[in-house]
Write a structure and sequence with these properties.
By secondary structure, the protein is mainly alpha-helical. It has one domain. Helices cover 79% and strands 0% of the residues. The chain has eight helices and no strands.
């Protein structure tokens, strides 16, 4: 039991270091290539697809055959969110003349090809978390055959995605309102997102204090 706790803490520490390094690399890339606010928001928009992918890959371990009934509505809701969000970003942050979905999607594809390595860095970070935290440390056992925890896991995912994207968009608006240049605003957005990612329970306002564990 003690060994499992130590291994879990060690993996979490390594995962946090990788998370910081990932965001630091993206920050350096942003500074070197002079990425704009729209560029970085689109990169994090694409990360939503990565997060959703690994969430789907977790489901077979948690709910087994029921995955085939859960995945279609989850993909549908996520797709709707990403389409609406992309149109919103195109309308308020891009320089395209026609902020419709097709034009915004075309520009997002261009940015994907232009900055594919940033997406790869984010993918590596998430696959590490999936393989070492979820698979190796068997996080799925905590949720298996527990309908309430599975439901909370889904709501927690949506809540974090919505709040995170809402807050970084607000930072983008604030940077523009205060007259910050795009580099400074991108810097603030990435630093904020790193802090947000390092605090997985930041939105869990009703979290109970952990009970003291005694090893006998």
């Amino acid at each position: 039991m003690i060994r499992d706790v130590v291994d879990s803490k060690k993996t979490t520490k390594v995962n946090n270091v990788l998370l910081v390094v990932t965001n630091l690399v993206i920050l350096l890339i942003s500074l070197f290539l002079d990425l704009g606010i729209y560029d970085i928001l689109l990169i994090f928009w694409l990360e939503t697809a990565i997060i959703s992918l690994f969430f789907v890959l977790k489901l077979p371990f948690i709910i087994g055959i029921l995955t085939i009934f859960v995945v279609p509505p989850f993909i549908a809701y996520t797709a709707i969110f990403m389409i609406v969000y992309l149109m919103f970003l195109g309308m308020f942050f891009s320089e395209i003349s026609d902020p419709q979905f097709i034009e915004a999607a075309r520009l997002s594809v261009d940015i994907f090809y232009k900055y594919w390595y940033t997406i790869l860095i984010l993918f590596i970070n998430h696959i590490f978390s999936y393989l070492f935290n979820f698979i190796k440390n068997k996080e799925y056992i905590e949720y298996k055959n527990n309908r309430e925890k599975v439901k909370n896991l889904v709501f927690k995912l949506y809540k974090r995605m919505l709040f995170m994207h809402f807050s970084i968009v607000m930072l983008g608006f604030l940077g523009g309102f205060l007259g910050f240049n795009s580099i400074l605003t991108v810097f603030i957005i990435i630093i904020y997102k790193t802090i947000f990612d390092l605090n997985p329970d930041v939105l869990n306002f009703n979290k109970k204090k952990d009970k003291k564990v005694e090893f006998i």
